[in-house]
């Protein structure tokens, strides 16, 4: 029969054990306080003295550190580099590594190893670099390999370790990976499949886990729904934003799909702008017949329609016009009545018109080309036509870089304004050398074919209108390819800088002309009229004298 201790005996044993533990703890604490200071011992980051711990027991207080304020740089106990040490930047460290790699130039590569990769496989990393085993070491190619590893976007840092042995060089690429996406999931999407959303966000498993990329994907999904009739759609991220999360989960609350039942315009003058005319400006369209063909309610298009309506009234002279919107839902919450509220304001009239900055052409000649007159309502289209007419006039007279800027000045009285045409004439130019460049695999078209379709004559005043007409004739001649798949269309480029030729200074003889022995010398212009100087010259400008003599031009190559 076994005798078990009673309850009182067990209690006494436990009390004795606790008393022993407390005695041992107090003795060790007293020994720690009575340890003598040893000035010869040193610990990095201390002042050379071992300080007793404080804050644990009430009676233990921390003595001050008298030497802590008298530290000098470079002395023991100073945290940081010494006086003579200079920290190196990342660029300097990279340059030192490149200098170290140059000593291995030309040695064979025995092995290549990748270290630190957890999510990326060695095969994928090996396929990214160009350095190969049993080939010579090239420092330039190794630097390209490091840049290629950075370019994957999955690695934030790369270190190259080189070890030399009898077999050759052993290269170790130590990579520090970025967190990658394990899975991408979409919850709550009924309108679009996961495949459509993946194409829109461009997020897939294996990509770098970047918070900015996830936020951008959230914005793209939300814009996709807003642009297709779901203005109340909201997208949130359930997983993927916290550290350690590799699964990205999007929660999509689509909301109801809203369509436009009717579009109305209120406040417009029907004699000036009818409802049917204003509705043609809007991108927001009402339903045609049923739910499928009905127009979606897109808030961004409504804002664009308001800006178009304001621009339409500004072009008619209503500079103070404002446009608002009102949206009414039906009982189901799916159909919307879109109403634009227009406040036209006063319509402005032109009180005066004048031209400034002209020196070569008189005001009377310019006023004949201007159609707007004092007392007329302001019309933006009419103003643009007058600007084009003034530019064409100066372009015909050789001022190909002239500028005409309208200045609309509002008067103190409401509804009145003044129009001032500010003209910068610039310099006058004449047609000089005409150079023909025909590109293609095997160009066979002669220069004369191109020159015959030009209405530009060397020595005459340069005209923007003639340049446009000549370019149009070349494009419509069906001699050259035109279109995005076949090549660029014929284009005339005007250069005003002086072209300096060095044929005489180079000392080389002129290039022989194979047709000089067979064809007689002809003084031709544009391949037409072999004897141009024999007949009377035609004054095409009627304002400026023509040159006395004109240089001949060779038409055939």
Poorly predicted spans:
28-85, 499-557
What is the averaged pLDDT score?
Answer: 77
CATH class division of the domain at 91-177: Alpha Beta
Round the Cα radius of gyration to an integer and report it: 43 Å
- What's the CATH architecture name of the domain at 91-177? Roll
Major beta sheet, specifics?
Answer: 3 strands, mixed
Helix content: 25-40%
Q: How many β-strand runs? A: 12
Which structural category do the helix and sheet elements fall into?
alpha/beta
Describe it.
By secondary structure, the chain is of the alpha/beta class. Among the domains are: 91-177, Ubiquitin-like (UB roll) (Roll), CATH 3.10.20; 183-253, Ubiquitin-like (UB roll); 259-343, Ubiquitin-like (UB roll) (Roll), CATH 3.10.20.310; 349-424, membrane protein fhac (Ubiquitin-like (UB roll)), CATH 3.10.20.310. Helix content is 26%, strand content 17%. It contains 12 helices and 12 strands. The strands form 4 sheets. It has a 3-stranded mixed beta sheet, with helices on one face. It has a 3-stranded mixed beta sheet with strand order 4-6-5, with helices on one face. Strands 7-9-8 form a 3-stranded mixed beta sheet. The longest helix is centred in the first third of the chain and has 27 residues, at 7-33. The radius of gyration is 43 Å and the shape is flat. Residues 28-85 and 499-557 have low confidence and may be disordered.
